[in-house]
Amino acid sequence: METLYKELKQYFDVDEFSVQKASLAFLRVPKSQLVSLLTHMKDIRGYTHLVMVTCVDYLEQDSFLLTYLLHNYSTHCDLGIQVSISRQNPVMDGIHHLWEQGRVYQRELFEMFGIDFPGSPDVHEPMILEGWQGPPPMRRDFDTKAYSEATYSHRPRDHKEPEEYMKQQLYPED
Amino acid sequence: MQSLYPPIVNGKAVYDLDSQKYIRVWQGPQHPGVTGNMSLELDICGDQVIKCNTHVGYLHRGFEKLMERRRYINCFPIVCRICVPEPDTNEYLFAAGMEELMGVQIPEKAMWLRALNLELSRLASFLMHLGGQSGAFGMGTVAQWTIAYRDYVLDLFEELTGARIYHMYMTPGGVRGDIPEGWIAHTHKVLDGASKLLDEIKHVMLNNAIFKQRAIGLGVITPEMVDHYGIVGPNARCAGLKRDVRKDNPYLIYDQLDFEVETETAGDAYSRTCIRWRETHQSIDLCRQILAKMPPSGAVHITLPNVLHLKIPAGQTYVRAESTRGEYGYFMVSDGSEFPRKVTVRGPSYSHAMALLEDLLVGVNIADVAGLMVSLHTYPPEIER
Amino acid sequence: MSDIEIKDNPDIKSELQTPPEPGYSEWRKDENTLYNDGLPEEEKDWFCDARPQKARKSVQVIENFLNWARSQSLWILAFGTGCGAIELRPLVTSRYDISRLGMQPRPTPRQANLIMIGGYVSIKTLKRIVRSYEQMQGPKFVVAVCSCAINGGMYWDSYNTVKRIDEYIPVDVYVTGCMPRPEAVLAGFNKLKELIKAGKAEGQNLYIERFDWYKENQKKVIKDWNMPDYNW
Description:
The complex is a heterotrimer of chains A (174), B (385) and C (232).
Chain A: H1 2-11, E1 15-21, E2 24-28, H2 34-43, E3 49-58, E4 63-72, E5 77-86, H3 102-113, H4 144-151, H5 162-170
Parallel strand pairs in A: 2-5
Antiparallel strand pairs in A: 1-2, 3-4, 4-5
Chain B: E1 8-9, E2 12-13, E3 22-27, E4 39-45, E5 48-55, H1 63-68, H2 72-79, H3 88-102, H4 108-136, H5 140-161, H6 183-206, H7 209-215, H8 223-229, H9 234-237, H10 245-248, H11 269-293, E6 315-323, E7 326-334, E8 340-346, H12 349-360, H13 369-375, H14 381-384
Helix pairs in contact in B: 2-3, 4-5, 4-11, 4-13, 5-6, 6-11
Chain C: H1 3-8, H2 10-16, H3 60-72, E1 74-77, H4 88-92, E2 103-106, E3 114-118, H5 123-135, E4 141-145, H6 147-151, E5 173-175, H7 182-197, H8 203-209, H9 211-221
Parallel strand pairs in C: 1-2, 1-3, 3-4, 4-5
Helix pairs in contact in C: 3-7
């Protein structure tokens, strides 16, 4: 993996390389070079399988960290390519032309995090949440507990202490 | 003769739904041929599908959000709810991800027990799939057999773990308990019966003329499509590619077991059924091997510090395992606190049910839609989580 | 006159295609009709807007006989609405064999009179459940299986699942557990039969009695209400 990183370093501005285990490494790439790096990995380096695309919301640093995880079937190695984008204007280039299922991930990311992928097919159509009117729910600042308490009515709790109640039920004479 | 298909302009089929030549029908979410709870929006011409849109989201619970609010050990009971027929893969992967981030090693015996549990759940899931596949082609008999027989496998689980469906057996740091007394003999009996049942299924289902007529040539996956669509598991192996996480990236003790990766070359629904039938046999064989090679005694779990206040060092990792549907993966990010920063579940049905199914269904007779859908072995809860 | 001429001559076309006035009369606005607010104007004529009525009771002797007959033919809607649906499969196949109780799964709501809510209900599913439930022929019953349908279960803080299903459709019998065993579900079905025989399974009438309350609750969580108020 280190040799791969050194070779990639000659062509791309990759940094923050970290090896998690023998078959898995992560590296960081600027936003503008992401699609060309993915194309390079897919066409030349044999990383042909897009395992997944996911996003981590770093609210403190005001950024989204997108992770594109690629797998190489000949060496059985994974490479996670990470790109940090601004949280204020979350727009990213699509990869649906490289992998067919990329558009599904992009639809999900738009729905769950509000990251826009211009040009991706059906990206603005609701996929999972139907009639959702709140903010994108997977963002860090969305409080699911508060939303759930405000929207749904909860069944009131029976205010019996379980321990006391079971004692009364089982040993009523004590 | 007028062409069946509508004209294509700028890469998109152009047709008018009001012209009464084309109809839009919905299949699901309450169609019995739909696996789980999803729906297909089909535009049909005559009885052929010309366009399909998959709609998911009926089972969305927001797991990834809920996990951000829960401590690691509190996440553990909810991860197995992601996939109902085969929850053990989720339990294993979550536990394995935690152990990898913490840098702990689980005892030898726990590894064998985990593998045994995974193989048994694979057997149960495949049995249910075979029944569903024959039921989708109008043969309810095999469904009656396999689902009733799956119950005996669930009985084994109940004896081992205490629960039928959600076992919560592979806790972080090992497994919850050792094998009870007399369980191994019971297991051998169930495995023998399962292998006998599979031979009967071969006579009734795989050699059935109607089943062959309908399944051969249905929904062909070519080797070129595999990487383009991200196809994994038996769906990729039916196109002739030897891809199995158990062989490629061996986890637990799979490198000590003796098995071959099953492949087929046709890539259609029939070869997918055959491959799953053979993998069910393989799974029975693996169970027997594990029972024979397993160390008779030893610790089954390590002692973790107080799990309610367990802090996991910052880091990120991806762990994968082979489920019945293919590569199942967990991407876990920890920021050093008691709560996971982010856990992303990569379900194999994600690419199968959305991108692949939409393209495979074009040109298929509507009577075969359910059969094609079941043959991909999609399971919706792992798409939307 | 052929079609081509009509297309060429705009005057004839407009003359032929004068759309009929929808002409909604005032009777729509009385208390026995529904507004169907969610539907677009052109779709309002496609759906019935009559308010559902309570079932009429006959003489007690005949009613007893009818209740006995109803309890012997419960047909389940095969709509797996959550995890609980996985236990429906062992139930209908040979090991637990629900046919001996006179029950069987049916693929369409028109043929079913029992809907089994199998666990957590997301908003998108709730919409389909309401639609399916209203399309079922009366008398109809609801069995809620799994703890998530009762109080939210382990998704108590989820943003996408409802916490109490009985605010949206009337429930006759609850079966607790996660998952309840098939025997527990069978016991629930037997309990429902007892209730029906005793004439106490009145969920359908309750739904009509408190129709406005149920609709208000449903519309509160289903944000894109685009279906008729009652799906006949």
